[in-house]
Amino acid sequence: MAAPWWRQCRRWGTNFPSGNVFDSVWCFSGRPACASASSLSRRTSSWSSAPGPEGKPLLALARHPKTLNINSFLIRHKSRLLYPTQQWCCCRMTHSDAKPKDPFMLAQRDLTSLYDDIKKELFVSKEELKNLCDYYFDGKGKAIRPMIVVLMARALNIHSNRSGDLLPGQRVVAMISEMIHTASLVHDDVIDGSDKRRGKRTINEVWGERKAILAGDFILSAATIALARIGNTTVVKVLSQVIEDLVRGEFMQLGSKENENERFKHYLEKTFKKTASLIANSCKAVSILVNSDPEVHEIAYQYGRNVGIAFQLVDDVLDFTSGANQLGKPSAADLKLGLATGPVLFACQQFPELHAMIMRRFSSKGDVDRAWQYVLQSDGVQQTSFLAQRYCQEAIRQVSRLRPSPERDALIALTEMVLTRDK
Asked: Tell me, which GO biological process terms does this entry list (predicted)?
């Protein structure tokens, strides 16, 4: 009987060809995520990976991967990575060697009044509800999601032969992305019983679970009203999918798979639904507002999807490598919630004792501490970090097909920030 695909991956070593991540980890819907258009599959042919058991592709995971430096990677592979084909998405072949601008600085002018505009959307006369809704919109968050949306919108506008200025609807999408994300945090804190978020007490800890749930619902309703005002039915459908994915992802997190091969696929799908779907569909939404080409929509979607999954993989690594002071929440939080994330699943290959702990969701006395030690003694953290690097490589490959612009280059630079962040 063939061994699980991710165990076999360990035998390949570091010389495995650079493969398309979404072809390597077969798609959750039953088809390669990058192959919805024939032209896309043709462009990615040189990135295909070798077939695995039963004809399914494998993802090469180096046993001892070296840390990837995105800047040097781009320099060494510019001709293949930035311009993978002679004709890339209807653009002329131009490129600037200017140093990419800092993504945060480049998006700053669009994000300056973001939280003030969100508070206007959440305006209510009842003081307590207003305080609840405004609690996380204090401008102290990273605003990663709206920043990605803003940069993608500007890059797409330039790609579509327009000025780089945001369209009104695109700015609203950026605002909605932060509102949906924050509402999901409020609900997650209730489900997880969390008492700390972003370095301060959670809403459920301050006001109680019932009021926290209602506040999350209210934020979602306000986001829905703002979405309806955009007036584009396709955008409404795309962003509505985010809310469905959030709910489905939360239900997936409540369950587990006994088979180790199914378990890892379950983990990646849950990661997409809970984290990456919002970024992917928000990027797709801003592309729809400026360009009618489905291939451009797919580029935006795939960039958001890959960056989103990588972001969560790094977050799962930080749960083992960062202290509570850096994360703003207790370390080993996932283990304490009974969750088996990437580092644990990879560690299972070296420490089979973890399987029983995973199935009982680390509920027995001493499970959390033992699992923590097993992960640190294994290469689970390194393997998860390497997988995040592969997703970031695919994000770069996708967005590099757009016309060169400071915003496009900032999106490329952002992938390195995702990999090197410590909180």
From this structure: isoprenoid biosynthetic process; ubiquinone biosynthetic process
